[in-house]
C-alpha cells in the first residue's frame, strides 16, 4: 500500500454548474480522506504559476484566462495510490473523449472547460499545491 496525497482542483465551469458536491463525493466514496479544502478565485498570477508547465504552448493564454475566470474549489486528498487513482477517476483531458463513468466523461463539455484538474505526479503535486495551500491549511493524517 502506497499512501499518497494529491491535489484536486474543481475548475470554474464545474463551480458555476453546481457540481462541487458531486465531485467531492466521488472521492470520498472511493475512500480518500480530505486533508485540505478551500474555495478561492485564482488571480492571473496564480493561474500563470499553476499552469507554468504549459507556458509557450498555443493554449496557455486561454487556459490561464479560464482558470482565473471564476472561483475554484481545491482539495488535497490522501489514500492508496492517490495520484494514479484520481487521474483514472477524472478521465482524459478532453472530456468529449473521456469514458462515461469518469468525472470528465460524465460532466465535461470541452477540452478547455473540462471540470477538474488532478496532479499527474508527486513532483507536480509539490509544485501545484504551493500555489493554493500553505502548510497550516493541511490537516495531518489521523
Fold blueprint:
Blueprint: E1 3-10, H1 12-16, H2 20-30, E2 33-41, H3 44-50, H4 60-67, E3 71-80, H5 82-90, H6 103-107, E4 116-118, H7 122-132
Helix pairs in contact: 3-7
Bin the strand percentage.
Answer: 15-25%
Distance between the termini: 17 Å
Provide the number of structural domains.
1
Q: What is the CATH class?
A: Alpha Beta
Task: Please tally the helical runs, counting DSSP H or I stretches of 4 or more residues.
Answer: 7
Radius of gyration: 14 Å
Q: Supply the CATH superfamily name.
A: Nucleoside diphosphate kinase-like domain
How would you characterize the largest beta sheet?
Answer: 4 strands, antiparallel
Strand order, sheet with most strands: 2-3-1-4
Share of helix, binned: 25-40%
Q: Give the topology string: H per helix, E per strand.
A: EHHEHHEHHEH
| Proper CATH architecture | 2-Layer Sandwich
In CATH, the topology is named Alpha-Beta Plaits
Assembly of the depicted chains: single chain
Q: Average pLDDT across residues?
A: 96
Note the overall shape. globular
Class by alpha and beta content: alpha+beta
Number of strand elements:
4
Q: Uncertain spans, ≥5 residues at pLDDT below 50?
A: none
Amino acid at each position: 500500500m502506497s499512501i499518497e496525497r494529491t491535489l484536486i482542483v474543481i475548475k470554474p465551469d464545474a463551480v458555476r454548474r453546481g457540481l462541487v458536491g458531486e465531485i467531492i463525493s466521488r472521492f470520498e466514496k472511493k475512500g480518500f480522506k480530505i486533508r485540505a479544502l478551500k474555495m478561492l478565485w485564482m488571480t492571473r498570477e496564480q493561474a500563470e504559476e499553476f499552469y507554468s508547465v504549459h507556458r509557450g504552448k498555443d493554449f496557455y493564454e486561454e487556459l490561464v484566462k479560464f482558470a482565473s475566470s471564476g472561483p475554484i474549489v481545491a482539495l488535497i486528498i490522501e489514500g492508496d495510490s492517490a495520484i494514479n487513482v484520481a487521474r483514472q477517476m477524472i478521465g482524459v483531458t478532453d472530456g468529449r473523449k473521456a469514458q462515461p463513468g469518469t468525472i470528465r466523461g460524465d460532466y465535461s463539455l470541452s477540452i478547455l472547460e473540462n471540470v477538474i484538474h488532478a496532479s499527474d505526479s508527486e513532483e507536480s503535486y509539490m509544485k501545484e499545491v504551493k500555489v493554493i495551500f500553505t502548510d497550516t491549511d493541511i490537516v495531518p493524517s489521523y
